[in-house]
């Protein structure tokens, strides 16, 4: 096959049955992906680090993505709203590309278009209105 495994970490929820916070669930899932992913894997991580403080979240997201780039070398889709994580494109230009999702909203329709590069402005609030 093209890939030997698909690994995902999406969503944000605690696990009251196991006594685990959202942050603990996030780290446990991510640790399992780190252990199992290979250079032939597809890894999708959505907003890693959101279960903790912004400072710690940036550090976790940055270090995790850098590990996948440098050591695992898997095909990785890493969704983040942390601008410092996007800076990895400068250090790993051959392996990393930043993309954003653009939105066009009018009274009649909305349209989503992917674009090259990162965006420093958050459009979530205007889109919701």
UniProtKB/TrEMBL annotation:
Q: Which SUPFAM superfamilies does the entry mention?
A: P-loop containing nucleoside triphosphate hydrolases
Q: Which residues form the DNA mismatch repair proteins mutS family domain?
A: 41-57
Q: Name one GO biological process term.
A: mismatch repair
Q: SMART domains per the record? A: MUTSac (SM00534)
Pfam families membership: MutS_V
Annotated region (Disordered), positions in chain: 108-129
Q: Tell me a Gene Ontology molecular-function term this record carries.
A: mismatched DNA binding
Where is the secretion signal located? Answer: none
Cellular-component GO terms for this entry: nucleus
Top-level taxonomic group: Eukaryota
Write out the entry's keywords from A to Z: ATP-binding, DNA damage, DNA repair, DNA-binding, Nucleotide-binding
Specify the protein name: MutS homolog 3
Organism field: Ictidomys tridecemlineatus (Thirteen-lined ground squirrel)
């Amino acid at each position: 096959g093209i890939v030997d495994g698909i690994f995902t970490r999406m969503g944000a929820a605690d696990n009251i049955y196991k006594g685990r916070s959202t942050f603990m669930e996030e780290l446990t899932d991510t640790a399992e992906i780190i252990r199992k992913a290979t250079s032939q894997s597809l890894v999708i991580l959505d907003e890693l680090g959101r279960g903790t403080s912004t400072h710690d979240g940036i550090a976790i997201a940055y270090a995790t993505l850098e590990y996948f780039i440098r050591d695992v070398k898997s095909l990785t889709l890493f969704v983040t709203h942390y601008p410092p994580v996007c800076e990895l494109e400068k250090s790993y230009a051959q392996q990393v590309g930043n993309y954003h999702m653009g939105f066009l909203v009018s009274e009649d329709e909305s349209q989503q278009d992917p674009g090259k590069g990162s965006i420093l402005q958050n459009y979530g609030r205007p889109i919701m209105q």
